[in-house]
User: What shape does this take?
Amino acid sequence: MLELKNITKKFGQRTILDKVNLSIPSGQILAIVGPSGAGKTTLLRCLSGLENIDSGKFLWDGQEFNPAKPADSSQIIGVVFQDYQLFPNLTVLDNITLAPILALKKAKKAAEEQAQKLLERLNLAGKEQLYPAQLSGGQQQRVAIARALAMKPQILCYDEPTSALDPALRGTVAEIILKLKREENMTQIIVTHDMDFAKDVADTTFTVTDLSQRRSN
Assistant: This one.
């Protein structure tokens, strides 16, 4: 179970997250929804370690961890960014294997074998030697998902996973997320403006207002 306890984040004098409390059972999908500027992406950035919180704590299965310290969070949190953030000068295979080789000290052959399995699962077999610019938006997103999964995270987070995609691809993204839940028991957190998508995939949906009101006394 992932627990957020009294998470507070400020930018200057403005409080973006005010004592947020949430519990997400293992294997569940949580969708965080709300208007732009309300704090949902800030929450995701704090959870993934891209922003430091001002107070509060994160726990995974009862153990506190700091997402901002890779040694604590490298096996806990994985993120699929809205713009995918693939390295344009690296092939698909190299994009997926780089972090496991450098951060997890995985042997190149083992990393490539794992990447190949992930690509097959995500219907990307045969794309190994292509570069991101040679892929469609949907294919780039699946490479980004494969790259995140290669680090063996306990929790996979998505920032607006449908925003840059053709509406026809929403179902494909939904199936990938639900398949990870069914086959991997993957805990997943989705930040999205797309309420219909959230209803299709999430076990629980919270608006940012819900988050700000779930405070401890």
Q: What stands out?
A: The chain is about 35% helix and 25% strand. The two ends are 22 Å apart (CA to CA).
